[in-house]
Design a protein that fits this description.
CATH superfamily of the largest domain: Flavodoxin domain
Order of helices and strands: EHEHEHEHEHHEHHEHE
Number of helices: 9
Oligomer: single chain
Bound molecules: flavin mononucleotide
CATH class of the largest domain: Alpha Beta
Number of strands: 8
Strand order of the largest sheet: 2-1-3-4-5-8
Strand content: 15-25%
Number of domains: 2
Structural class: alpha/beta
Shape: globular
CATH topology of the largest domain: Rossmann fold
Radius of gyration: 18 Å
Distance between the termini: 22 Å
């Protein structure tokens, strides 16, 4: 069985994993399963695979690491000799240690990781940083990567090239370890459609739209609000956005490790 597994609040990681998965499916023509770990309920389950299985896994990069809320669920996954392809999707700043961490984690959980890739997606905090990525070029790169990765998966050979990143991994930034102030709602624009509640991966938005104090700052409620009624306020976020827009505009390209 082929499984595409991802966490993807603003859907860029989903696009990359789906593109790789499509190429795999065309070659394997087997039963396919999608595990979208974005909703909280899906992250509460445990997942087990077997030697015949192939898993394409992707997660966004949060402060150079795997998003911390994914660690408990990933540490429960049983690879049991399944083969895996792992990807990190980052917002054109850097992927730092996230891909290496993902490779290590999947290896520890009993997978043979045959290929790893770092791809670029529009930054959660600015449309001016990698805006609309992954684009056609990125999806082509994902397809080419998948073609090479498939051969590695078929022969069961683990990644041979050195994956970029350091051990020990960089410390988690305090901003991704503790809850953030949720994006504010402009009452004049909000029509109470509930989209923000639907897309929030941590269920931090209550029915009266108040914040339950669990926000991870993923930006899903900001990006998917059909009325643009939600925005991060606060000087820290303005400063971060400005810094990203000043320093991370130059196009970075996917990096592949097989
Ligand atoms: C809390 C947080 C931390 C992030 N840290 C990084 C980072 O260290 N480097 C980077 O290039 N992008 C960073 N990003 C941007 C995301 O990795 C990027 O936008 C990714 O495409 C989002 O994936 P998604 O669309 O699947 O949610 C961060 C985003 C968030 C929300």
């Amino acid at each position: 069985m082929l499984t595409m597994m991802y966490f993807s609040p603003t859907r860029t990681t989903k696009k990359i994993v789906s593109a790789i998965g499509k190429t795999f499916f065309e070659k394997m023509l087997c039963k396919t399963n999608i595990v979208d770990l974005t909703p909280l309920a899906v992250r509460m389950r445990t997942y087990s695979f077997c030697e015949e299985d192939v898993v394409i896994f992707g997660a966004p990069v949060y402060a150079g690491r795997i998003p911390p809320l994914l660690l408990p669920v990933l540490r429960q996954v049983n690879g049991n000799g399944a083969r895996a392809v792992v990807v990190s999707v980052y917002g054109n700043r850097a992927f730092d240690d996230a891909l290496l961490e993902t490779f290590d984690l999947f290896t520890e959980q009993g997978f043979t990781v045959c290929a790893a890739g770092a791809f670029i997606g529009e930054h959660s905090y600015s449309k001016a940083v990698a805006g609309n990525r992954p684009d056609v070029e990125d999806l082509l790169a994902a397809d080419l990567f998948a073609t090479v990765a498939y051969e590695k998966v078929k022969s069961g050979t683990p990644v041979r090239s050195l994956i970029e990143g350091n051990r020990p991994y960089k410390e988690y930034a305090p901003s991704v370890l503790s809850a953030r102030k949720a994006p504010v709602v402009d009452a004049a624009l909000c029509v109470h459609c509930g989209k923000c509640i639907e897309v929030c991966p941590v269920c931090t938005i209550a029915a009266d739209l108040s914040d339950r104090g669990q926000c991870i700052g993923c930006a899903a409620c900001v990006k998917f609000c059909p009325r643009q009624a939600r925005a991060f306020d606060g000087e820290d976020m303005q400063r971060l956005r400005m810094r990203l827009e000043e320093t991370c505009r130059e196009r970075k390209n996917p990096k592949l490790f097989v």
